[in-house]
Amino acid sequence: MPSVKSFKSMLILALPVLLGIAGLGKACAAIDEAPSPQSAAPGEAVAAKPASLRAVPPAPRLPPADLDKLYPFYMPMEGLRQPAIKLTVKCDASRAAGREVYAGRDGESLYGRAEGGYEFIYEALDSSGRPCVYPFAPWMPQIVGSLQGTQYILRSSVPGQRVTFRSSNEWATIDLRMFDIGQQRVHFEMRDIELDFPGAVQPMGAVHLEAVGTARPGLLTAVIRRSKIYGGKNALFVPGGQTMLYIEDSELAGNVGSNVDQEHTSYINGILISHFRNTSFHGQLAWQNIASGHQIKDKAYLRIYENVTVSNRPNTSTPSAMPLIDASSFGFTWSDNLHLQRVAPAQTPRDALIDLRSEILYGAPENYPWNVLVDGSWRMPASPLTALDKVYLSVFLNTTVDSFRTEPYAIALRPQGTSIAPGTTTVEGNENTTRAQQRMVSLAFNTTGRFKQVYSNEGWTFTDPELPAGAEWVTDRDAFIRHALGLIGR
Predict the structure, then answer these.
(1) Which residues make Cβ contacts (< 8 Å) with residue 424, sequence separation at least 6?
(2) Rounded to the nearest 5 degrees, what angle is found at the Cα of 119, between the Cα atoms of 114 and 124?
(3) CB atoms within 10 A of CB 365
(4) How many angstroms separate the CA atoms of 105 and 405, rounded?
(5) pTM of whole model > 0.90?
(6) In this predicted model, what pLDDT tens digit does every residue of 145-181 receive, in sequence order?
C-alpha cells in the first residue's frame, strides 16, 4: 500500500493545490511527471507521518485574463448563459457627473430592472492613465424574471487593474438581492473592484450576497477575484443556502458597523463552501470595553483556506479581543499556510485564535451527513485516526501563529450537544456530553509560532500524528473536498 514518510514527496500532495482549479467545464489536468510515493512491501501497512510538511510553493502566475477563465473543479459551470445586459461605464464622465455615465447603451434603458443577467464593465483608467476612482457606490438594478443559468458580473475593463468605488454614503453597498431562487442555477462574479465605504453603517455588507430561497439541486456560485472590500456592518455578508463562495487574491479590510460584538469583517452563514485563496482578513471594528467580533465568522459546511492571512489589526478602533476565526465544528475544514496574527487588544484576549464552535447550527439539515447532536448512534473507536472518513474533520497544515503574547493554545474544538432549543437553532447540552460521544476530529501538522500547545484540552485533537495507511487523503486538498461533498451528494 502506498505511503508517504515525512512527506518527502510533498510536491505530489501540493500539486492538487496548485493545479486543482479547472477551466470552465473541464477537469483539472493530470500530472504525469511527479514521482510516485514510496511503496510498502506487499501486505505491510506503513503509517504516514506528515510531521515535516513544507510550505506549498507559489503557483505559476498566469495573466489575469487567463486566470479569470479558471474556476474551482467543484463548481459546475456548465449551462450558464451569457448575460443579456452588457453596460460599460466611462471613468472621467462618471466622475464629473457623480454617477454612472455609459458608453453606448445607457443604464436608464433598464428602468431599474434587469432580466437575463448583466455584466457591468467599469473603465479602469482615467484620461491621464491613472486608476479610476468613482466617487459613488455602483448602481445595482432590481433582478427580475427567470434566474436559471443567469450571470451577474461586475468587473474592471482591464483584468488585473482595480477600479475603486469610494463613498461616505451610509447605504453604500453592492447588494445582489435575489429571492426565491429555488432549484435554479445562478452565478455572481466581482473582479478587480475596490470598495471603500467608510460611512456605510446601514447595509448588512459592503458586499451583500443577498440571494436566498435556494433548494437542491439549485445553486448560487459566487467568485471574487483581486478585490478589496471595506465598509458595511460586515465587509462581506453571505446568508445561508445552497451557495459556493470562492475568493482569491483579495483583501477584506474591515467593517464599520456599530454592533461590534455581532458584526465582523466577514460573516458567512450556513452555505455549502467557503474557499479563500491568497487572501487577507483584518480590520473588524472593535470597541475598547467590548470583546467585539471576528475577522472571519464562517459557518459553511466545507471551509478551504489556502495561503490566508488573518489579523486583528484594526483600521480606526482598538483591536478585537475575540478569536480571529469563528468557525463551525460541524462539517469540514481544510487549511494550508494559514497565517494568524494577533496584536494586543485593550481587553484580555479570548483564548483560541481559531474557535471551532458548536453552540449554534447555521446550515440546513440536508447539508450534514450525520446528526450534529449526540444521539447514541455513534461512539468513537479506540483509534480515532482509523475513522477519519466517518467523522466531521478539520485539518490544519503549516499554520503560523504570530502573537503579542504566548498563546495558551491556538485552536479549540468545542463539544457537540444533545438537543436544539425549541424554536431556535441554539444547541444545548454541550457540557453534558462525553468525549467518546463526539463525532469530530481535528488534526494539525507543522504548526509554528508563539503558543504553549496547538489545541485546547478538549475533543479529539491530534498534533503531528502518524496517519494510518490509507488516511493520506486528508492532506490532499482535492481528495478532502471530494470526500466532504460526496457525503452530501454534491
Answers:
(1) none
(2) 135
(3) 8
(4) 57
(5) no
(6) 999 999 999 999 999 999 999 999 999 999 999 988 9
